Automatic annotation (TrEMBL):
InterPro entries in UniProt: ABC_BtuC-like, ABC_transptr_permease_BtuC
Protein source organism: Gracilibacillus ureilyticus
The protein's name: Iron complex transport system permease protein
Gene Ontology process terms (BP): siderophore-iron import into cell
Superkingdom, taxonomy of origin: Bacteria
Gene3D superfamilies: ABC transporter involved in vitamin B12 uptake, BtuC
Residues passing through the membrane, by range: 20-41, 76-94, 106-125, 131-150, 162-182, 210-234, 246-271, 291-310, 322-341
GO molecular function terms attached to this record: transmembrane transporter activity
Signal sequence segment: none
Amino acid sequence: MSSLTDLAKQQRNAYLPQYLTIVLIISFILLIVSIVSSLAFGSRAVGWNGLIEGLFHPAIDSYDANVVRQRMNRTIFSLLCGVALGVSGALMQAVTRNPIADPSILGVNTGASLFVVSGIAFFHISTSEQYIWFALAGAMITAIFVFGIGSMGRGGATPLKLVLAGAATTAALSSLVIAIMIPRSYVMDQFRFWQVGSVGSASWSSISTFLPFLIIGLLVGIISASALNALALGDEVATGLGVRTGLWRLAAAFAGVILCGATTALAGPIGFVGLLATHVIRLVLGSDQRYIIPISAITGAIILTISDVIGRLLGSPGELEVGVVTAFTGAPILIILAMKAKVRAL
């Protein structure tokens, strides 16, 4: 069985340049489709003339053109959040050597949520700049806690132990979130829309707040790709190749938490995007992080933007929050992955 698997990997590596070209072409086509769809569809559909007027003719003040311009910040924000979640998922899977690692599964989103709701309840925070720092602190502390719990006992941080630690932590932190909200109605009113996960409240201010964290996370993630490939061979082999395993593992984990925490702060705890994006790419291109990380960014942007469009269409004339759509589609896929494959280290 292992010889057949090795043969399949050799054949895939031989055709990797062709696969990579095809994946890039398909990804960019889907990216364009998702952008156009996000600008065109909503409570009111906009035709080609309205799209062209809104995008390329700022002097035209028609209703459709203004609708397109109003949707631009939402579209850009959903793309950026998708990029962040896709890369965060790829980094967390590589660092933990867990093929089903994801910010939502490992409890990082819930940790960020707990700190945000605590900030609202006890420190009266209300701006995106305040949200982002509280969410980052919660995401980092939770990531360290889950990895520490998952590393206890024999065998260290195995994929199954990390998932179980993440699930237990998520349950405990979710209970704390509810305990803080229930006696404080004003906190519940402010928190309930954010908790679902949405890109509908996007503004140019939130985008500008988000960009520095996105850039830092992306740069660190891309730089650490080669080191993560070495870490996949095992710490002893990686050390023999001259890789400082502790430093690069910490750097990649830091980048993943920054990307996840910043996204959670501004868009809410949107789950399964990183899991889906990285799995799709790994099935086609293998486990080379030099390809997985950048293409997961594109795939994550596509998944989140399309999910947002689907939510608007299904909930018309209102909308179904994107966090509901990604959970509705991601949970069955996670169940299928767990049924069809053994959860083993990468």
